[in-house]
What does this fold into?
Amino acid sequence: MSANRRKMLYIYSISFCFIKINSFDASICFVDFNRYKIYNLQEIIYIEEDIMDQFAQRFGIECSPKADEKQVIVCGNTRFTVIAPCLLRVEVQSEGKFCDEPTQSVWFRDFCEAEYEISQSKNTVEIKTEKVTFVYSLKSQKMLRIKLGDGRTVTNFKAGNLKGTCRTLDITAGIITLNDGVCSKGGVAVLDDSKTLVLKSDGSILPRDNKEKDEYYFAYGNDYIGATTDLYKLTGKVPLIPRYALSNWWSRYKAYTQEEYLSLMDRFKAEEVPITVATVDMDWHWVDIKKKFGKDSHKISKHKNFMEYVYDFWSVGWTGYSFNTDLFPDPEGFIKKLKDDNYHVTFNIHPSMGVRWFENQYKEMCEAMGQNPAEKKPVAFDITDKKFTEKYFDILHRPFEKMGVDFWWIDWQQGTKTNVPGLDPLWALNHYHFLDNAKDNHRPLILSRFCGAGSQRYPLGFSGDTTQTWKSLDFQPGFTATASNIAYPWWSHDIGGHCMGKKDDELYLRWVQLGVFSPVMRLHSTNNEFAGKEPWNYSGPVERTAKDALRLRHKLLPYIYTMNYRTHTECRAICEPMYYAYPEDKNAYECKNEFFFGTELIVAPITQHTSLKTNLAGVKVWIPKGRYTDIFTGRIYSGNQVVEMFRDIETIPVLAKEGAIIPMSANDRTNDCSNPETLELLVYRGNNTFTLYEDDGETLSYKSGEYLKTAFTVAESGNKVSFIISKSEGDSGVVPAERNYIVKLKDLVDGNITVTVNGSKIDAEIVKDNTVEVRVTASPEATVEITAENCRCLENADKKQALTNVISKFQMSTDRKGMIYNSFIKNGRSVPNVSKDFKGPITEIMKLHR
It folds into this structure.
């Protein structure tokens, strides 16, 4: 036993009370002999603290919480840390005992050497970096003003905050108040870290020894990307999400039988709708425990808070760890069948009630925790107890993981208190579950609610039980993108809405269309028999369109997974607000539901009912400078304008930027989510490079270099367009030995096409049908070049034809349609004198032909 793993203790009494001899301070501690190995050496014993050491190894974190001393300035009971040129930490502690430990939010304070100058006069300190000047009053212990690099002087640090996110959207219907983020139109935002707890080296979470003020001033002006990038650096980057989690999920709160659930998955397969994650809600375990085990079976030993009392009284079966064998007579066979059919599996848990006597694991938990199982006293849930935490995973969860459960949906709703003052059990559950899930080279994942700054370290986010209303749908696009402001990129919503509301086929479809271009696509609903989100539960046109949308999500996996890698390495969310790229344009702030979906696309979901007069629904879209093409309609828009775009139920506006390259899988009918053998590339003329990222999608082997990058480049010069697939770099073993490429030059109609592989011309398959499509097969080691000369480019449909197409959808007499059409032809550019419902779609057509 090595010296650093021993603790010398002098025997003080037979009651297991000892005096620490070799500690920095003498103190009393109580030792349970069942937890340690005892070595008798006369009056001194050596106790190997296996529990503490194992816990630290298991739940320790990689962090760099102590800043370089060169970046630290101490003025009495105030300490300043220049973390970055635009980021200053300010601590006030009356005894001068400052915090250099990681907190729940902040793990990294040593990531930048920022030069600065300091001057002090009386009670004022001025710290000047290359970009910002901070002026602080030691007397009032307040930041007085901050002068930004753009010349502005800011004194109100709350004004203009662009907000961040919130814990949950449970039972909300529309707009709710969000917490602050680190982006502000005012130029400065403050992250208050004063109330967070600290993470000790042994893996435990405890209150600070000395806490008063601990604030971080983000003085980035309108450089929102800079602000959020440094927030990621400060609090921790986002792990790489498993590939399977980025396709379609099935989830429903319903007491399925084993046969029903498996039959449903078979139905999805038969309908050729790819589902990659099978979610099993709480009814996998015993729920009606009074009926099954008697009226006293549900009691827990002590309610920590009122919410726990409410849930104990209202839903006594929420917590459970034993399969309901009435519903699942063969649990192992059930999970094996899902795994054999290529589904990844997650189970829902509500752990607040601990482990009760009827659970299969009760006896083992009692023995581990030193309780007598004969007493039938519940083993209390206590995530602050190291021993309980380890046994919680080892005894209660590991057996299911060995069966095939990939990760856990932590559905915590039972209050915010634990035995450690200030520790929210949600935070502890997210933290420990995510760390525990990273074992055996397994890429970790959880699904749980947001628990404050730093939550991006524990993806994915579950936004709670949303209501099935248009107001809820309308709030979600902006809510998702705005979460970028607090570095929270992976929200997962209940697509279609969870509960309440009423059946509305169009609402369901618009939600599914949003889900395709959301971080996570998870269908979900409550246990009402008529609330299911299966596409075949809806009318014919909606069913067909919803199925196509789900297939499109699966096809987009190569693009979305590359954006996942970008989030992991570059700290950029897949859904970002428009003002990130255009902070100086007021329009970027006003189209709140419009957002970037990765590097290549702008999405503007439709969140309003279709007009009964036109069969169209509209959404205002701000188009930045450049040329943008709708990937569904093919309409080409010039930038620097706001256009109200109208669509029927089949599409929403999704705009590809000039030079966009969108890699897609050719597979949209099965749930195979491996790197595809056939890759479709949607290419729009312009000048751009897109680098595809691929690895095995599930393990941590990418950290050892087992990944591949392939650069695609489009270039346009005059009437010549070229597209190059460069030789891949990295480990080609993660992709097929040869790959079929289907290159779709979406806005080229014709041209003289030549194709070379490694410089040699080949006879490739070329299809021209209103676009140019080239098919070629090559290995990852090859370079493919496609050149189109004397190009004829796609243009918007003739104005007359476009107007005819739009007016044809209007629900009015054909004579009236003819009058509108003739008025347009006669007056040219002016909009016919028609009501608002009809004017909007016509105006869009006119803007296309300016």
